[in-house]
Structure prediction request, 207 residues.
Amino acid sequence: MLAAELAGRVRPLVTRAGPRVMVAGLGNYGLRGTRHSVGMAVLDRLAWQLAVAEGWRADRRCCADVAMAAAHGLELVLLKPRRFMNLNGLSVASAAEIYNLRPEDIYLVHDDLDKALGKVAIKMGGSARGHNGVRSCISALHSNEMTRLRVGIGRPEGEATVSSYVLAPFSTQEQERLEQVLAQAATFLLEHILQRRAPEGEPGDRG
Prediction:
């Protein structure tokens, strides 16, 4: 009985069969479809592009939805935390332990107020720049070496507060562009990952 209880508490590590990267879409799980959760929307699009859109499963060990994918000899762990944004790091850190990943093996995908909708950029480590989800990940992983894909959502106009703006759904006008934005972001991210992390000699490795 004791052995069974201990087995249920011990979190087994998933050994590496080859190069592995985790991509975490940050957001508020209960507020999907809002500007602040655009990182999760990018993950859904990435899963579709990698033909694993039906592969999401809830993993209680890290309190997240997880999907596994492979591309050009590289294993990808796709992660959507089932927590509020300021606690996303707990899920990311737990998954990093489960899948035997270092902070430099992790990509964080998140919204960026300082970029217009449709603009995306890669940031190699560094500070959280005021983003609560990234700050949570830095705190939980005790590192700021994670690569980030910053997805522009623009800033509010008029009298709208930042908090009400980011927690609101995209406007009708923004929705008309959103599908294209998500596709471009997912493609840009995947190309960056393959260029940097695909095993030498694989088609995805471009030096």
User: Anything to note?
Assistant: The CA atoms of residues 6 and 150 lie 40 Å apart. Strands lie at 20-25, 57-59, 64-71, 74-81, 106-112, 120-124, 147-152. DSSP finds six helices and seven strands in the chain. The helical segments are 2-9, 38-49, 88-98, 132-141, 162-166, 172-197.
